[in-house]
Amino acid sequence: MDPIRSLIHSVVLAIFVFAASASAEQAADRLKTPSLISYRAGQALMLDIAADQALVAVGDQGVVMRSTDQGQHWQQQPTPFSVMLTSIFFSDAQHAWLTGHDGLLAASRDGGISWTPLLDGNQVNQLRLQRLQERVAELQSLADAEPDNALLAEQLDNALWYADDAAVAVEEGPSVPLLDVWFANEHRGFALGGYGLLLKTEDGGQHWAYWGDRLDNPDNFHLNAMMADHRGDLYIAGEAGLLFRSQDGGDSWSRIETPYDGSFFSITEFKQQLFLMGLRGHLYRSVDGLDWQTVDTGYNATLLSAVADTQKLVLLGQGGLILESSDGQHFTPIDSGGRRSLSAGVAVDGAYILVGEGGLLSLEAADE
After folding, report:
1. How far is CA 274 from CA 286, 289, 305, in A?
2. Phi/psi of residue 361, each to 5°?
3. Which of 101, 111, 217, 249 sits CB 3.0–4.6 Å from 177 for a disulfide?
């Protein structure tokens, strides 16, 4: 099977199994149907985990698992939705944010105990359409003033196409997933996802603006992950080798050339170096965010995420792959105890709390 098709069919990468074939009514049901409370919830497919004063993991069927004792015990938190949850982020101990399929974005003001939906796919589609229609109007006014400007005419044609596409999406309903969320503080944040979707808020998620047209992404490739480095620069990684950087808090973005044209699923920082990872084990390292060098780990399993602290960088991937490094250049495999793919993790007190196909997994960190 082609590697990309194999990836799409992997359960761990359910974040790419879009609900395009489902009806708008089915999507609405998932967005409004509470998650099922189950004693087996901790074994469900999990796609992300975040830590502040508590650990919170999110995954399939709207499952949110929370621990206040470093992963020793977990409690499922009720949620008013049952879509696949794709990411979670803490801006501080009390304020947390999660994303999911069908355009779901929800917030917690109590450290991940309770969750309030802020956006769904219908609202996201409307935000995109409104912004693109505004863009058409802007370009139409300029083109009317300069009727012989061929570049403006081309830009207007493209804008009309994007606006028409957005109008179709409104008719089709909430099918595009949000795949990651990042906040600078409790007020300013971004959410991103399928088909070039990028949203921005300045008021803690009460109001959002469509920001996807600020990116040099004419083919609307998927945006998969976002992070900030020690300098405060923001990065967005996506499919087709996409990498964007912002040095003004996300108001404007520049496209960074990368040495790979496949999908990137994660970007992280370790010892003030950036690491970009994705399909077929591709891993790249940079000290400035512009120049990227290949890192050969000796493995070709797709890399989905990483855990980084002051001492170790741990890469997580398909087939239960775990690779550990103290310098970001030489990696040693760690036995995960199985072949279930791992999608995210955090480091806590001499252990790694990982999530993936098998749900929650606690793994002792290797001794120095």
Report:
1. 5, 7, 13
2. -140, 130
3. 101
Task: Report the topology of domain 3-120+174-364.
Answer: Methylamine Dehydrogenase; Chain H (2.130.10)
Beta bridge partners of 75: 66
List the 332-333 sheet strands across, edge first.
303-308, 313-317, 322-325, 332-333
Condensed to tens digits (0 to 9), the pLDDT of residues 184-234 reads 999 999 999 999 999 999 999 999 999 999 999 999 999 999 999 999 999
Question: How many Cβ atoms from other residues are within 10 Å of residue 49's Cβ?
Answer: 26
In the sheet that 283-286 helps form, which strands lie side by side, from edge to edge?
A: 264-270, 273-278, 283-286, 293-294
Query: Tokens for 306?
Result: 């990483």
